[in-house]
């Protein structure tokens, strides 16, 4: 039988009209289980029982034959007050039918007073069952919360996908589309004119715009999935991405890695790279930093760790990440959601004036 690990005092609420029987229980507990200390508090009627429940007790010991109270009434009070303290019936004599009925009504066990030597084992078992029930309740609450969070994340994923599609559409329309339209206009102009110099000028302009269109397409393609990721690996892609963002902002940077990068990268590699890009964009926009360090770790089972640290102004995490997505924290929440959807966890450590450290394992 599993022993209770906590040697602290076990508090027992005894519903008993005979003080001598409570004394006998205390002696039996002390003799049978000297490793634990037992504190017994006696009540004998409903009002005293209700008042006693304002305190914390581990187990309730209730006599079956009381003149002004009963274990059934005690169980009803416990249910009404949503109190989960287990109740054990301890009585001189009880019929089999009555014992089964009181157990069905919610009592955890019963014991006759001529066998008080086994009371510590019964208390031990009931407390362990209570602990397992509390653990199951906790796991159930966590599972329910996880389901709710997954449902919310799924809805946000759809919104994020639409937002990214809108961004790509806008980039194609506002930049690449206008560039291609300009090319067509200049090529038509070159075709209509009879002046060789004008034809040459329109053609050269169209060529310049074509080169610009190729550059825009490469930039857009890189933002979606850098070619280096598939050709050279995650470290090289991260180095290139950090350089593209940090150098124009005058931000000093370093990129390092630990562990052996696998030959074939999984989907987590693209998530890690996107996290680096988003975190670095946040640094450039908000941190007022002078240096940023990026470190990648290749862990067992294909997991990837990412750490990005800047020396910027930092922020009050409790204020910015207040549980509600808004314009000021949409980037951070996007990173958190992207990491969780990939099966990982992201942690942000910061304080005003102390820079920011973003750590993720996916």
Task: Annotate the secondary structure layout.
Elements lengths: L9 E6 L3 H14 L5 E6 L2 H7 L6 E4 L8 H10 L6 E5 L4 H9 L4 E4 L6 H74 L3 H29 L2 H5 L2 H13 L5 E7 L8 H21 L3 E8 L5 E7 L6 H4 L9 H12 L3 E6 L5 E6 L1
Parallel strand pairs: 1-2, 1-3, 3-4, 4-5, 6-7
Antiparallel strand pairs: 7-8, 8-10, 9-10
Helix pairs in contact: 5-6, 5-11, 8-9, 9-11
How would you sum up this structure, described in words?
The structure is a single chain. Helices cover 55% and strands 16% of the residues. It has 362 residues and is of the alpha/beta class. The protein has three domains: 10-138, Response regulator (Rossmann fold, 3-Layer(aba) Sandwich), CATH 3.40.50; 145-222, no CATH class; 226-361, Histidine kinase-like ATPase, C-terminal domain (Heat Shock Protein 90, 2-Layer Sandwich), CATH 3.30.565.10. Helix 5 (119-192) runs antiparallel to helix 6 (196-224) and helix 5 (119-192) crosses helix 11 (330-341). The radius of gyration is 35 Å and the shape is elongated. The model is unreliable at 1-6 (pLDDT under 50).
Brief account:
It is built from eleven helices and ten strands. The protein is of the alpha/beta class and 362 residues long.
First and last CA, distance = 41 Å
Structural class: alpha/beta
Instruction: Tell me, rounded to a whole number, the average pLDDT.
Output: 86
Instruction: Return the CATH architecture of the largest domain.
Output: 2-Layer Sandwich
Shape: elongated
Oligomer: single chain
- Helical residue percent band: 40-55%
Number of domains: 3
Strand content: 15-25%
**Number of distinct helices:** 11
CATH superfamily of the largest domain: Histidine kinase-like ATPase, C-terminal domain
Spatial order of strands in the largest sheet: 2-1-3-4-5
- Residue ranges: pLDDT <50 for 5 or more in a row? 1-6
CATH class of the largest domain: Alpha Beta
Largest sheet: 5 strands, parallel
